Amino acid sequence: MSMTLRRLSRAATAGLVAAAALTAAAHSAEAADTLGSAAAGQGRYFGTAVAASHLGEADYTATLDREFSSVTPENEMKWDATEPSRGTFTFTSADRIVDHAQSKGMDVRGHTLVWHSQLPSWVGSLGASDLRTAMKDHINGLMGHYKGEIHSWDVVNEAFQDGGSGARRSSPFQDKLGDGFIEEAFRTARAADPAAKLCYNDYNTDGVNAKSNAVYNMVKDFKSRGVPIDCVGFQSHFNSNSPVPSDYRQNLQRFADLGVDVQITELDIEGSGSAQAADYTKVVEACLAVDRCTGMTVWGITDKYSWRSSGTPLLFDGNYQEKPAYDAVLSALGGSGDPGDPGDPGDPGDGTASCTATYTRTADWNSGYNGQVTITAGDEPISTWTVTVTLPAQQSVSSLWNGTPTWNGNVMTVKPSWNGTLAAGASTGFGFTAAKNGSDAAPTVGTCTAS
Ligand code: XIL
């Protein structure tokens, strides 16, 4: 769609968008029983990353439309997706997400304009002056296409190195244009769409550390020199190696004190059950304690499509059941579910037993490997579970423990041996040894069913 057409169609649908927003507001006044409406009650948005390719899946879209008030395209606005060759812009997938969000009255975060990753190779091969022009053209191309339609843009993503130094990360932009590329990007972005909030976004900056200090000093410098910047995004991808920092709130607050908004932009926390729920509570409480923390985005709707799916880091399991983490977030947002909604805090539950299964290879040698399948109960306690595992045709299983298999060709159906009974959110699993017989491919784990 050309820029002009897009603007025309945007104007034509503006009435519809306003109507949808009104419906959402009316809903929140009645009962804050969803993430979006509960967050709205706190003056915040609650968003999710969305992949255009899943919008045709009824449960995915129903969950998105019911729960979330903001979306971030997970990959569709990145440089490789939007300008795969110089000057040729493609917006088909990103437009699908933006159009869907607008039809439901949701905000859109733009992610991301200048980043070293998911960057087409032609960019890296340009000389400095050409690269500067290409960077500005890219910013103008995207921000022009979506002018007036994006709540906040991640103008520059991940420009600092991990580790103790607080140095800039090597990238074509850094290496050829120097530190100044960041402010050039922000100045270009301000001119391209003055209505959009302009964010710097990064990871491992969630607590006070050398990397967040370096970002802090940059933002402070930008504010003192009048370089346009409105917000800082904290990705907040957490797991046991990178837990929710104890000084998360203090860190958000010190950035806010510089005069920028802060946003939690890509939240996910690996784990399950009550421990995962408690970590989500910490994050929501930290954001709510900081006036300028304007919203939170989780990095996906369902564990099954998470970029870290083996860590089950999201609020809905693979069957779109609300996890304990969902209840914890809704409750921390002050939400009060309707009795009978599955998983609402304080409810007895809807009685639907569910489970999810994830696979990891735990050992590997020339002729064989060990696999482990982890079973996690959903919102309800369960007394038994069933999982199918399909092996590549050549492979054969020589032993299996903590489960009872039956075979049909290369498909094994596994039920518990002693470990059928699980509390809500609790995990167990079974392991097996397989002979590769020439195929190193991974088995496929089917849907987990429970009762
Ligand atoms: C990830 C997506 O979730 C994946 O689908 C993709 O393969 C790689 O990128 N930091 C970011 C996000 O800013 O854009 C990344 O998203 C996750 C880390």
Give unreliable regions as ranges.
1-5, 7-31, 338-348
Rg from alpha-carbon coordinates: 23 Å
| Total DSSP E strands | 18
Mean pLDDT: 91
**Structural class designation:** alpha/beta
Strand content: 15-25%
Strand numbers in spatial order across the main sheet: 1-2-3-4-5-6-8-9
Can you list the ligands bound to this structure? (3S,4R)-3-hydroxy-2-oxopiperidin-4-yl beta-D-xylopyranoside
Total helical segments: 13
Helix coverage percent: 25-40%
The biggest sheet amounts to: 8 strands, parallel, barrel
Give the overall shape. globular
Distance from N terminus to C terminus (CA atoms, Å) equals 49 Å
Brief digest:
With 451 residues, this protein is α/β, with parallel strands linked by helices. The chain has helices at residues 3-30, 35-41, 58-67, 79-82, 92-103, 121-124, 128-145, 172-177, 181-192, 210-225, 248-256, 273-288, 324-332, and strands spanning 45-50, 70-73, 107-114, 152-157, 197-202, 231-234, 237-238, 261-269, 293-298, 355-365, 368-377, 385-390, 396-401, 404-408, 411-415, 427-435, 444-445, 449-450.
Distinctive features:
18 strands; alpha/beta; 24% strand; 8-stranded parallel barrel; 5-stranded antiparallel beta sheet; 451 residues; disordered N terminus; globular; binds (3S,4R)-3-hydroxy-2-oxopiperidin-4-yl beta-D-xylopyranoside
